[in-house]
Amino acid sequence: MVSVRAKEALLDLVLRTLTGCAADSTDRPGLRRSISVNGFRHTARALLLRHWLHSHENERDAVLLCPALEGRFTLAIAAADGGVGREILESGTWEPHVVAFYRNVIRPGMTVVDVGANVGFHTLHAATLVGPQRRVIAVEPDARNAALIRLSLRLAQEPLPVEVIEAALSDRAGELVLTDLGNAANSGARFTHEDLSVLEQLVHGPSPRFERVQALRWDEAHPDVHPDLVKIDVEGFEARVVRGMSRTIERDRPVVVSELAPGNLREIGRVEPAEYLSWFRERDYGLAVIADDGSTQPTSAEAALQTLGGRHHVDVVFTPIGSSS
Question: What pTM value is reported for the model?
Fold first, then answer.
């Protein structure tokens, strides 16, 4: 078995060959821990990425092309994206528990709607699972993220059955305010609300960006879409989205994957988490928390909220009672 020290020496050789310099001495304890925990490949990828970004810090508008899920697809990532994008660039994946859940649940022939698609990681993964004869619809209001999804689709070796809708979803059509709350470096930190003052109270970083974006009520805009699975991750606006999809959900009974972030639901959605969960219970849906390995176990609303502990959010799945999904 190759020792951590030997792997560290090999990493130095790789870094010197590609960049002309070895790792900084202050990085070495962290590198050894990363090699032990994450393995050589992940550590080397992350270190080389950090070196590249540091060397090109004046080119923050650059877009990097990242093989994802061991080359299953290629994703376009903004170099300035220090949140979702950085994790995908370093590891080749995002939210591995959701990846595992998708592999367990999504089958060829399904229709998937990805609400809050971000840069499209879960969108493209779903597209590789449903097959060319079905469809994945990515709903993303941020123009920069939507452009990256379209670029990723153009990079695909074979056409992927993805439609991009550049808009936000709500329970009424019109306009919403989209903001990063001053966290521009994280493509996942995008919040929507019709009231600018609500969002202004939540700013937590410098130079927040606010812009008006189109809002759609799904039932009115896309009544002919019959989804098998809906994924919703919209930073607290989830309750408004499902109200705007109520006819579709009641008619088609799709599996619904949702972020459950109590703080965001209260501050952005102005709804109690228990009320959001009860909306599905009233429509005869069961609830489960997605575990780290992608598995799910039925649970109650109270137990799901207790699962959070000190975490910001968990991902949950609502399944029609009586469904085999």
Answer: 0.83
